[in-house]
Amino acid sequence: MSEYSTTHVNKLVKQFGIKASAQKRIRGGIYQIVTPDGRKYSLKRMPKQIARLRWIDRMLMHVQRNGPLLAWRNPQTPEGRKPHAISQKGELFVLTPWISGREPSPRSLADMRSCGIALARFHKAGQTALKGDISQSEIGEWYSKLDKRLRYIQNKISKAKTNSFSVPISRFIQRHGPEILRYANQAKALLRSSRYEVYRQSPRQYGVLCHGDGGPSNFIMNDKGTYLIDFETLHVDLRAYDLYRVIYNSSKDYRWDFSIAKAILDGYRKVANLKKMDYELIRVWLRFPFTTYLVLSPFKRIPFSESRLQWALENERRISTFLKKLEEYETRHCSTRGN
């Protein structure tokens, strides 16, 4: 998707009834807007169809009324009355308050606990928002998601065997492909042996409103508390998936230090109990070699290189020890009721 000129951004902002005295591109599709009186907003492209965006808006408006701190529109303000704007290219944009503050740091266990608390509060408020509406549910897609990613990895390994990549990359994948596939198959085995089917067959009972991509970059902390931001991945899923995303995104760059995950889980448990099944399902996603999958994918922020593949494999190996510590944590803290 192409970026927008200053003129086009100004036209989008005007659709919300405000004027931009300054604008700054933050990253692809996200702009900071400053009004003449100094108010700041985030103008963000939402890569969704309009029906999906309306659902996201409806859910977040309900959650916001129930207490959790979110970066979303306030319909009581003039600029918040319009839910979205449409560009000349037909792309959808939302305007939300710019939340000043800082990203939480995985080096701070207090920050990680705050993220766990914020996520649990979001899930709790989201349950009343859903009221059985699981039209955007991905609860039943776990098998197909894992299978699709596994096939992608298998395809890359097959290409490496025909030396379709550079010599160092092809040799690395040929050498370590069996180990990578073993981790992927372990994840699938964990899913089969879990009680996932219980949740899968009762999505209205177990589904929660999931952020979908939680992590340090999607929380903002300030004097008012911990905000959740960026909701283009909002959907209905199991809370284990959201916890996995926050744990993964917070731990992957810190050598899988389990104290980070412990702080997130400790924070979450201050608001809601976690069941044995939740831990089982968190382990499924953590065991899948997702970091390797990202390196093998056309993901611009992670180059496809031998050094990055080595980095990814080291991550997958550390997760083995990490998962043992997660099991120990579960044994100490798991609520067995309702399993």
Describe the fold and architecture.
With 339 residues, this protein is an alpha+beta fold. The chain contains twelve helices and nine strands. It has helices at 6-14, 50-65, 109-130, 142-161, 167-193, 196-200, 203-206, 239-251, 258-269, 276-287, 290-296, 306-333; strands at 22-27, 30-34, 40-46, 85-86, 92-97, 208-210, 219-222, 225-228, 235-237. Strands 1-2-3-5-4 form a five-stranded antiparallel β-sheet, with helices on one face. It has a two-stranded antiparallel ribbon with strand order 6-9. The protein starts with 5 loop residues before the first helix and ends in a 6-residue tail after the last helix. The mean pLDDT is 95.
Structure described in brief:
With 339 residues, the protein is α+β, with helices and mostly antiparallel strands.
List keywords for this structure.
Phosphorylase Kinase, domain 1; 12 helices; 339 residues; two-stranded antiparallel sheet; 12% strand; Aminoglycoside 3'-phosphotransferase, Chain: A, domain 2; 9 strands; alpha+beta
Topology (SSEs and partners):
Elements: H1 6-14, E1 22-27, E2 30-34, E3 40-46, H2 50-65, E4 85-86, E5 92-97, H3 109-130, H4 142-161, H5 167-193, H6 196-200, H7 203-206, E6 208-210, E7 219-222, E8 225-228, E9 235-237, H8 239-251, H9 258-269, H10 276-287, H11 290-296, H12 306-333
Antiparallel strand pairs: 1-2, 2-3, 3-5, 4-5, 6-9, 7-8
Helix pairs in contact: 2-3, 3-8, 3-9, 4-5, 5-10, 5-12, 8-9, 8-10, 10-12, 11-12
